[in-house]
Write a structure and sequence with these properties.
With about 300 residues, the protein is α/β, with parallel strands linked by helices. The chain is built from 6 helices and 14 strands.
Length: about 300
């Protein structure tokens, strides 16, 4: 059975009400195009403030269920559209970068909290500002949770932005039999978007034989005054790593029909899961792995530079 999926990119601001109006618009547009399952970019209900540290943005976090998920649940029921809604979540005293799973008539049926929290090092005064999500978010507590959508006949996973750079998460979802992974993102750097954005998601799709839907923000980057912008380029990739459809840098809805059964058939042919060697992967679960690695000893010319 095919499922019509969509990904929506738009400009999100500091004002939740404005963003919910944009979500209204995109859900209605998706419903008109027959979309059954729709995903949005990272933290779609607010701006992405992680390039600066300002306590006012911490106040934008909401509980789940809460105003944004209640609004999205009403939209889902009205339009008959299932949703992956990324938002800034407050859970007690903690805050998370979260994606809520929403079904028509049911509301929130699950969620995924971002596992890997970006906290890059600045190596020199001339480097670009780097995201410090740890000021705003805790590492997720959900593990690599999945959404079994019985009505659509599809199992869904999520990797949020920085998560996509850690292949272990995608493989963990694949081992749970997911058919589709949404990747809500807020990335603006030219070298990432122009070179790595497509490459990473295409490789993820092929290596794990599932569909991938990557959604990136558009519009100004909070914390910069030099006109820096998120470039969008949201896309849907099939299980063989081929781009099915892709947006540019303006507001857009990207739509594609996917068939989960075809991805499962490809798994039987490619055998990436069946032919794994878990007994060789011990280092992947050790935080100290590589700490004593002698780079020079592993170069034929003895040069320690990597």
């Amino acid at each position: 059975m095919t499922v019509t999926i969509g990904v929506a990119q738009f400009v999100s601001t500091d004002t939740t009400h404005e963003n919910l109006l944009s979500i209204d618009r995109m859900v209605a547009r998706a419903a008109d195009q027959g979309v059954q399952l729709l995903g949005f970019h990272e933290i779609a209900n607010t701006s992405y403030p992680c390039f600066i540290q300002d306590p006012k943005y911490r106040e934008l976090a909401e509980p789940i269920p809460g105003p944004s998920t209640d609004h999205a649940s009403e939209l889902a029921t009205r339009h008959g559209v299932h949703m992956v809604l990324p938002l800034y979540e407050r859970q007690g005293d903690m805050r998370f970068n979260t994606a809520a799973f929403i079904e028509p008539g049911k509301g929130v049926v699950g969620k995924y909290q971002k596992s890997h929290i970006a906290r890059s090092r600045v190596h020199s005064p001339g480097d670009l500002k780097t995201a410090d999500e740890a000021y705003y978010c805790e590492p997720g507590q959900t593990g690599f949770s999945t959404w079994d959508n019985v009505q659509l006949g599809i199992r869904i996973g999520v990797q949020i932005c920085y998560d996509r750079h850690f292949f272990e998460g995608a493989r963990s979802l694949g081992l749970q039999g997911v058919d589709l992974v949404f990747v809500p993102t807020a990335s603006y750097r030219k070298f990432i978007i122009e070179t790595l954005w497509n490459a990473e998601l295409q490789a993820m799709a092929f290596q794990n034989t599932f569909f991938v839907a990557g959604i990136n923000k558009i519009g100004p980057v909070t914390g910069f005054t030099d006109g820096r912008r998120f470039p969008g380029r949201s896309l849907i990739v099939d299980f063989e790593g081929r781009v099915m459809s892709q947006a540019g840098d303006e507001e857009a809805l990207v739509v594609a029909d996917i068939d989960p059964a075809r991805a499962q058939d490809a798994r039987d042919v490619l055998r990436f899961y069946e032919l794994r060697r878990p007994e060789l992967y011990e280092q992947l679960t050790r935080m100290d792995a590589g700490a004593d690695f002698d780079r020079a000893a592993h170069r034929s010319d003895g040069d320690p530079r990597l």
